[in-house]
Design goal:
The protein is an alpha/beta fold. It contains 9 helices and 11 strands. Helix content is 32%, strand content 20%. A 7-stranded mixed sheet has the order 7-5-4-8-9-11-10, sandwiched between helices. The protein has a two-stranded antiparallel ribbon with strand order 1-6. A hairpin with a 2-residue loop joins β2 and β3. α1 crosses α6 and α2 runs antiparallel to α6. The longest helix has 18 residues. The relative contact order is 0.14.
Length: 275
């Protein structure tokens, strides 16, 4: 009883500490240095065998975890022992805040099963924990990982059972898919009926050609989503209740924005999502 009480309090302290981006950063960087440089844990990378993932997704994202000097090194990243110092997982706040404002989520956070797709580093997993979700109930999936906290896999074909998760966070990941409807179907498959899904994407007024001229390559898929309506369209009739929609305001189309959509999954026989 005493040990359980101490463990529970320690969990509260850790989750509170992880509300700080600075704490998340240095814990994530320290663990990355330990696993990659000290223990020399293999840096696992997904063997892409289909055309579902955009061509540049792997190196564009992995270089924000470990240094890559050979192919388009990131122009602003700073590294310590080859590990990117820009790991805070803070961007996930944009989805976690509206998700945890939903009553069915905040009332039962401690027992809900959560999937974080594309966290890139452990810092985002720590951020999910800081919102009150328990570590043992969180699974994370990315195309690459050194971490025991992050599985390696493809969001178009995930290694999880049907009807398993209560919450799915898909932040700035769907844009890297060349088959967004397939990715959406797979997300819906692993969700329970009524599960909450949060999707975030970036909006830019630049054309694909302008991006290539500036960066030297295209970030993500050339088939870009431009609104929350287009996001939910990928999920078809599996969309239940729309809880939160953040689109580019009228008159701001020449600015960079984040597009955010939070909605529930409705499992219908007619949807063809494996239910």
């Amino acid at each position: 009883m005493i040990i359980q009480g101490i463990s529970s309090w320690l969990g509260v302290v850790v989750r509170f500490a992880f509300r700080s981006g600075l704490v998340r950063k240095w814990v994530a960087v320290g663990r990355a240095i330990y696993f990659i440089r000290v223990r020399r844990r293999p840096f696992r990378m997904l063997e892409v065998s289909s055309g579902d993932i955009s061509e540049n997704a792997m190196f564009s994202n992995s270089r924000r975890l470990v240094v890559n000097q050979s192919i388009h090194p990131h122009p602003t990243a700073k590294y310590l022992l080859g590990i990117d110092l820009g790991q805070t997982g803070a961007k996930a706040d944009r989805l976690l805040k509206p998700i945890t404002a939903i009553q069915q989520v905040w009332q039962h956070k401690a027992s809900l099963k959560v999937l974080d797709i594309g966290p890139r580093s452990e810092a985002e997993v720590f951020n999910v924990m800081s919102f009150g979700f328990r570590r043992e109930n969180i699974r994370a999936l990315d195309m690459f990982s050194f971490s025991p906290l992050i599985d390696v896999g493809d969001m178009h074909d995930m290694p999880y059972p049907d009807d398993f998760f209560d919450v799915v966070i898909c932040g700035w990941v769907l844009s890297y898919s060349e088959n967004k409807e397939k990715a959406a179907r797979e997300i819906a498959r692993v969700c329970k009926d009524g599960a909450i899904v949060g999707v975030g994407i970036s909006y830019t007024p630049k054309t694909n050609e302008e991006i290539v001229a500036e960066r030297g390559y295209l970030i993500g898929s050339g088939d870009r989503l431009q609104s929350t309506e287009e996001i939910m369209r990928c999920f078809g009739d599996c969309v239940g209740t729309s809880y939160f929609a953040h689109d580019v305001p009228v008159g701001k189309e020449q600015e960079h924005w984040d597009i955010l959509s939070v909605f529930s999954i409705s499992k219908k026989v007619s949807s063809g999502y494996g239910v």
